[in-house]
Amino acid sequence: MSAPRSGIAPDTDKILAQAESAIGRIVAAREAVAEIIYGQEQVVERSLVTVLAGGHGLLVGVPGLAKTKLVEALGTVLGLSERRIQFTPDLMPSDILGSEVLEQAPDGSRAFRFIRGPIFAQLLMADEINRASPRTQSALLQAMQERHVTVAGQRYDLPAPFHVLATQNPLEQEGTYPLPEAQLDRFLLQIDVHYPDREAERRILLATTGVTEATPRKVFDAAELLELQQLVRRVPVGGSVVEAILDLVRAARPGSATGKHAKSIAWGPGPRASQALMLTVRARALAQGRLAPSIDDVKALAEPVLQHRMALTFAARADGVTIRDVIRDLTDGIG
């Protein structure tokens, strides 16, 4: 028997029935976070899509745009244990992973006991990840990939689900250690956090400077989220969407690039970008109340999936070409 085509499982009707029952709660979760985070609907949606797809996200924005509050709200709404680590140049891997301490029992015997670090949380905020040394960054990113840590030769599994939402400040680059490209590739999405518009900022002023503030409400628990993540992987994807993903990712690579900026690409995304799009378009469809993704989902997620997985040539950068220009050109060519 041949394998199912286009990722469509044989029990499609059953999957669609499960998706229909889950859509209402996913939309409720998105709305619950939006009640706390004003004027950042796209950021909320992409953060939720990242978690539903089972991945990690990189939030990029200037200070004061509620990135920390977003992670706290997500933790509450999704029923996850949430921790925050402020990355600094003197932070050591053991400060994140944990360490062994020597303890003496009443009978005089001694033994090592492992004290778990803050990474043992279901939703971890790595604040200003680029301020830590490469050694500390690597310890976190290895745990993100392998979902466990090893201390003194002993393996310790991380909780399930496990997600990291890291932040970067795009302005202050003094004293920072930018993430290498291979480590950036571990993030499912790069989520750009922009300034709110005037109406949203007015709402922020009125809602956050009074006697009381809105608090997030729980919609899911960890077990339900794990079930949803498995459901996302079973959502049917049409052949046209699969082809659009392949066309987009392959067109973003030097040698096979197309469009007016084809010669501007120094290096492009690998297969992990295709995998990221395949998962996130499914999650976005459910988050918007739809049972299957479309080519519009591919176009909407092209930038957050590709922008941290590409680099431009020096000549292109000298001419003022940006990654966004290139991705916009590529998305115009699909569908």
TrEMBL record:
Q: Report the residue ranges that make up the AAA+ ATPase domain in this protein.
A: 53-197
> Gene3D superfamilies this protein is in?
Magnesium chelatase subunit I, C-Terminal domain (1.10.8.80), P-loop containing nucleotide triphosphate hydrolases (3.40.50.300)
| MF terms in GO | ATP binding; ATP hydrolysis activity
Does this entry carry the keyword Nucleotide-binding? yes
Q: Which UniProt keywords apply?
A: ATP-binding, Nucleotide-binding
Superkingdom assignment: Bacteria
Q: Which family does it belong to?
A: Belongs to the MoxR family.
PANTHER family according to UniProt: MAGNESIUM-CHELATASE SUBUNIT CHLD, MOXR FAMILY PROTEIN
The name of this protein is MoxR family ATPase
